[in-house]
Amino acid sequence: MASAPARGAHRIDGVDLLRTLAILFVLMNHVNVRLSISKVPFKQGMPQQLVHALFNNGQNGVRIFFAISGFLITSMSLRRWGKLSAIDLRRFYRLRFARIAPLLLTLLAVLSLLHAGHVSDYVISDQRGGFWPALFAALTFHINLQEATHGYLPGSWDILWSLSVEEVFYIGFPLACLILRRKALLILLLIAFVAIGPFARTVLAHGNGLWSDYSYLSGMDAIALGCLTAIFLEGRQFPRKARFACAITGAALMILILGFGTNAIGRTGLDMTILALGTCLLIVPAAQSNLRGPQLLLIPGRNSYEVYMTHMFVVFAGLHLFIMAGKPMWGVPLYFIGAVVTAALVGALIARYFSEPVNQWLRGASGKTS
Predict the structure, then answer these.
(1) What sign does the dihedral 370-343-156-259 (CA atoms) show?
(2) 289 φ, ψ to 5°?
(3) How many angstroms separate the Cα of 270 from the Cα of each of 31, 66, 199, 212?
(4) What distance in Å separates the CA atoms of residue 338 and residue 42, rounded to the nearest whole number?
(5) Which of 38, 54, 73, 301 has the smallest CB count inside 10 Å?
(6) How far is CA 348 from CA 66, 98, 111, 341, 345, in A?
């Protein structure tokens, strides 16, 4: 999610298209949740399968992000240092800080002001653990644990659970590369994360549905699969037929989960693993072809971190406008479309005029800016 290359660096249009798809699922899900809470019966008469495909794939969208993130971090590390055992630990963390910290700290400052001003949609009640523990959890990447203990936080805070999973993985990733040294040992560790993932979402969740979705290990299998994909592709060029087979298989697996996900698959915990595997299979032809995507569709994917971190402001603002208009049913599609377009625009503006300039400045302060 937060692993886009710096502007002007090596980009893969196919991967950016996948990220656009992922952020679309997240946005559609969050608009759907707000309408459902507001008791707007807009899904009446719609086929259940269509409802699932359009509105219930928010968690799946995050898993797509996780798989892409693992692939990008690993492939960029291989380009920078030649081999993972040669990672410059200090520089790795400084690059992550440059990408993550500016927008995260700014977001937390804004959310803190909104909480202090008692602005609805942004106040953290004592029943949810209180403001200071939530702020500390966000800064130390355990807001997922905070929510599993006290329940869902307001939407703009809740989204930070995925950052907790992702950043804890990336705190340990370069350490594992340096300690294990051998590629085979690192691969075994990553495979272990993949194997544990379904159990983390079922047995290890101990009946806590929120922890089933938000726990560290429940998301790390997707990141690990992305890492394994990058390692597997290093130095290899697949023939066209093999790339085509990967694309077809990957698309089929993604469609299976995104369009036809069932409780039977979900109860095994394998649904997220299957989706991540499908994503990685699609990454293979995307990374080894010269596919050029429509530039308009690439914008949300290229700025997915900014869109993800700020989209709840757009969702809440659109909801209040919709309610002020009297909750007209004709306004529902306008709300969905408006939220998607506006969130993409806001994310692009923040990336261009804030995130990227600060990112580049901090990278420059650390020396080489690759």
Answers:
(1) negative
(2) -135, 170
(3) 26, 15, 9, 12
(4) 16
(5) 38
(6) 21, 18, 20, 11, 5
Cβ–Cβ < 8 Å for 220, 189: no
Spatial distance between the Cα atoms of 311 and 343, rounded to a whole number of angstroms: 5
Q: What six digits make up the tokens of 222? A: 């997707």
Is the Cα torsion angle 323, 116, 107, 137 positive or negative in sign?
A: negative
Say which DSSP state 202 is in: T
- As a whole number of angstroms, the distance between CA 293 and CA 343 comes to 20
Phi, psi of 198 (to 5 degrees): -60, -35
Tokens for 48, please give them.
Answer: 């259940």
Degrees (nearest 5) of the Cα angle 122, 126, 129? Answer: 90
What distance in Å separates the CA atoms of residue 54 and residue 59, rounded to the nearest whole number? Answer: 12
For residue 165, which of 142, 187, 197 has the smallest C-alpha distance?
A: 142
Q: Alpha-carbon dihedral of residues 189, 194, 200, 202, nearest 10 degrees?
A: -150
Q: pLDDT confidence of 330, banded at 50, 70, 90? A: very high
Neighbours of 368 (CB within 10 A): 10
CA distances from 331 to 59, 87, 302 (A): 26, 51, 29
Q: pTM of the prediction?
A: 0.94
Residues 6+ apart with CB under 8 A from 331: 322, 325
Which of the four pLDDT bands, split at 50, 70 and 90, describes residue 285? very high
- Taking Cα atoms as reference points, which of 343, 354, 350, 344 lies closest to residue 316? 343
